[in-house]
Amino acid sequence: GHGPTIVFVHSLGGSRSDWLPTARKLLAHYRVVLVDLPGHGDSALPDPFSFAAVGEALDGVLAKQNPDSTIIVGHQFGGRAALAALAAHPGRARGLLLLDVPVGIPLQIDDQQKKQFLDFMDNSYETVAKMMFSKLGRDTTQSTAIFAMFSQTPPATVKAYVREGFYSDGNKDAKSLKIPIQMVATSRVWKSDITSGAALKALGWDDTTATLRRLPDSGYWAMKDQPDTLAAI
């Protein structure tokens, strides 16, 4: 497309093609860039791994865009990558949209508990993968499709992101940004019986008073469930 640039970054276990339903709604007025998150598709997993390293990989794409007309859209850990990239290289974009982006762990978990979980994931990867990624859709059929795609992701990639998610805090990166941030939560995360503050807390955000927009009738594949609404946002 032609016009201002929108860079889409998918989630852990996802694919750049996840964003196609939303991207097609924008091609008439925007230039759309679809990115493989490091460790997925054609993008290598950084070694050693960190969200800072993931952010540097993403910056290789952002550096080629016009910063005055670029908006980044990040889903789940794709949003963490965007936060890390912009914290290290401010000025690469004029705005950021974060969809269901976790920046920390909402519960107090000590290092021993973290180690036990990570050891369990190493020894029983399939069990943990099903526990985390088998019920993310709007219904059983979509959940099965999401898990089938997730299963194509190398276990080393999943383990690296989950481990880093346990030991890093994206709030610091978010607080350093000077550009507008629009936060969006799917109805899977922001259930009808909780407040926006509770939804933000569940995602690990320190500021539970931030403005959060709810995307109704949407699961993990919100970009496929609500492409028109997301494109409008």
Keywords for this structure?
single chain; about 230 residues; alpha/beta; 6-stranded parallel sheet; 11 helices
Model description:
With 233 residues, the protein is of the alpha/beta class. It has helices at residues 20-23, 51-62, 77-88, 111-123, 125-133, 140-150, 155-167, 171-176, 196-202, 222-225, 227-232, and strands at 5-9, 31-35, 70-75, 95-99, 181-186, 212-215. A six-stranded parallel beta sheet has the order 2-1-3-4-5-6, covered by helices on one side. Helix 1 links the parallel strand 1 (5-9) and strand 2 (31-35). Helix 2 packs across helix 3.
State which percent range the strand residues make up: 5-15%
Q: What is the helical fraction, as a range of percent?
A: 40-55%
Order of neighbouring strands in the sheet with most strands: 2-1-3-4-5-6
Average the pLDDT over all residues and give the rounded result: 94
Brief characterization of the structure:
The chain is 42% helix and 13% strand. It is an alpha/beta fold and 233 residues long.
Blueprint of the fold:
Layout (H helix, E strand, L loop, with lengths): L4 E5 L10 H4 L7 E5 L15 H12 L7 E6 L1 H12 L6 E5 L11 H13 L1 H9 L6 H11 L4 H13 L3 H6 L4 E6 L9 H7 L9 E4 L6 H4 L1 H6 L1
Parallel strand pairs: 1-2, 1-3, 3-4, 4-5, 5-6
Helix pairs in contact: 2-3, 4-5, 4-7
